[in-house]
Amino acid sequence: MKLIVGLGNPEPRYDGTRHNIGFAILDALAKELGVVFHAGKGEFLYAKAVYRSVDVLLQKPLTYMNLSGRAVHDLMHFYKVSIRDVLVVCDDLNLPLGTIRLRAKGSDGGQNGLKNIIAELGRSDFARLRFGIGSPPYKGDAANYVLSRFLPAEQPIVDTAIAYSVRACLSFLEHGIELTMTRFNRRDSTTPARNSPQDTDTEKRSTSSQMP
């Protein structure tokens, strides 16, 4: 079983903000897989699917960004998900808008959601997909910037990069992180990666298994 986690803040007022791009990507991925999110017994939303014979969990923690780790820890523990089968999707201030960067492990890079997940799991060797949201126009304005919405002129870039990120997530499910990094780590996410996996004939099946 593989787990993909999207990070964000739960209240409607945060919908569409830069900090919630992880939620946006998970919503797009759930739509691609033909599943919908439901409330879990913990502080998270979940969806369960099968993609090309791989059992899949999608998760959106509802603990706010800075406390995301407990929900991730609990779901991993309940389903005995190996850390090598986890992908965390989050925003990144240090990447240009629309750029995605996949890594098999690493530091939190200043991303508080990643920081809390690392603290709760006690290790950092899980895969992550960072989505570039650009940098604030003024130094010291990061807190307000990440909670702002994308400008109308930015939205086409964001939409294209979200679709690219969904394809990267599907590649992770089928091929793992190493091959996915090779195929999808490109500065420009607006055009397909060379030799990227095709998304046609997607096998998808939702299930209604009891969740924690």
Query: pLDDT under 50 segments (min length 5)?
Result: 192-211
The total strand number stands at 8
Q: Helix coverage percent of residues?
A: 25-40%
CATH class: Alpha Beta
Count of domain modules:
1
- Mean pLDDT across all amino acids: 89
Series of H and E elements: EHEEEHEEHEHHHE
Number of helices: 6
Largest sheet: 8 strands, mixed
Give the overall shape, derived from the CA principal axes: globular
Taking Cα atoms only, what radius of gyration do you get, to the nearest Å?
A: 16 Å
Overall structural class, as computed from helix and strand content, comes to alpha/beta
Q: Give the CATH topology.
A: Rossmann fold
The proportion of residues in beta strands is: 15-25%
